[in-house]
Amino acid sequence: MKKIQLPLTKDIIKQLRAGEKVLLCGKVYTARDAAHKKIYCKMQNAKCKSQNLPFNIKGQTIYYSGPAPAPKGMPIGSCGPTTSARMDRYTPLLLKLGLKGMIGKGNRSEDVKKAIKRSGAVYFTAVGGTGALLSRKITKAKVIAFRDLGPEAIYELELKDFPVLVGIDSYGRSIYNRK
């Protein structure tokens, strides 16, 4: 299994192939539906300047997850992937602003697949229903924006050997295509 250090680089992304198993290490940011909507509204009002985001999006990876509260002695509670398609209306703009990776579950729209290819990005899939196990691969967690959203706030997470599959690679190939 290939180990990938985040943030992603063009060279790393070009080497990844749909269906490949990888372990992610490094920093990611969580964002689900409500956070995406807030980011999108903020960007529309700011005429799409990435410096108005709660974190520098260039080269970063977003994990579509809403973590559960941390049990005593743990950095975070259950932290599994959510359905990525719900973020599809916001994703092309974020890719245009420099987002390079996404982690979630399920297929993406044709518009997002084209935007991934156009932007030279990658979409990773994590196994749904394994939030408690995946949380063991998170070594640090802190809320960095939208605390009012509770579990849908934006968290900065530190991953160590976080298991994913390349769902859609930068060439537009997808594990969801049956051709």
Give your account of this protein's structure:
There is one protein chain. The protein is of the alpha/beta class and 179 residues long. It has one domain (2-168): Alpha-Beta Barrel (fumarase). It is built from five helices and seven strands. It has helices at 10-15, 33-45, 91-96, 110-119, 131-134, and strands at residues 2-5, 21-30, 61-63, 101-104, 122-125, 138-145, 154-168. It has a five-stranded mixed β-barrel with strand order 2-3-4-5-7. Strand 6 (138-145) and strand 7 (154-168) form a beta hairpin. The radius of gyration is 15 Å and the shape is globular.
Tags for this entry?
179 residues, fumarase, 5-stranded mixed β-barrel, 22% helix
Short description:
The protein is α/β, with parallel strands linked by helices and 179 residues long. Helix content is 22%, strand content 27%.
Distance between the termini: 25 Å
Counting helices, strands and paired strands, the structural category is: alpha/beta
User: Can you count the beta strands?
Assistant: 7
CATH homologous superfamily heading: Fe-S hydro-lyase, tartrate dehydratase beta-type, catalytic domain
Indicate the mean pLDDT.
92
User: Any idea of the CATH topology?
Assistant: fumarase
The largest pleated sheet is described as: 5 strands, mixed, barrel
Strand content: 25-35%
Show unreliable segments. Answer: none
CATH C-level label: Alpha Beta
Shape: globular
Q: What share of residues is helical? A: 10-25%
> How many structural domains can be distinguished in the coordinates?
1
Order of helices and strands: EHEHEHEHEHEE
**Widest sheet, order of strands:** 2-3-4-5-7
- Count up the helices: 5
